[in-house]
Write a sequence for this structure.
C-alpha cells in the first residue's frame, strides 16, 4: 500500500533520528540477520510509519516507550493496530526498556517467536 507523500517524508526524517532502543534493535534486524527476514526501518504504510516492517511476513515491530502508556496514546495505538490488522499486518509491541536492558535477549525471543 502506498503512503501519502507527507508520511514518506516524515519516515525519512525519522530514519535519521532513531531512538536508542530502535538503533539497538535495528543492529540485530538489518540485512536479514533475524531469521533471514528482511526488515525495513521507519517504514511508511498507509497513514502510519512502522518502526520496523517485514513485508514477507506482513509483520510490524513497534518499540513502545513510556509515552505509549498514556490513555490518549493507548487509544491511538489501538486504532492503528486495528487498521494494520485490516491490512493483514501483525503487530508485535516491544517495550523500549526491554530492548535497552537486554537487546540480545529481545532478538532471541523474536527469532523464537518467528520460527514458531
Amino acid at each position: 500500500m502506498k503512503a501519502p507523500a507527507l508520511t514518506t517524508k516524515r519516515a525519512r526524517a525519522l530514519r535519521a533520528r532513531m531512538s536508542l532502543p530502535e538503533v539497538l534493535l535495528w543492529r540485530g534486524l538489518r540485512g536479514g540477520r533475524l531469521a533471514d527476514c528482511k526488515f525495513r526501518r521507519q517504514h511508511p504504510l498507509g497513514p502510519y510509519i512502522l518502526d520496523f516492517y517485514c513485508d514477507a511476513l506482513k509483520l510490524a515491530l513497534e518499540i513502545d516507550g513510556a509515552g505509549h502508556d498514556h490513555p490518549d496514546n493507548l487509544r491511538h495505538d489501538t486504532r492503528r493496530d486495528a487498521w494494520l490488522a485490516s491490512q493483514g499486518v501483525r503487530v508485535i509491541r516491544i517495550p523500549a526498556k526491554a530492548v535497552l536492558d537486554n537487546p540480545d535477549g529481545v532478538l532471541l525471543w523474536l527469532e523464537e517467536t518467528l520460527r514458531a
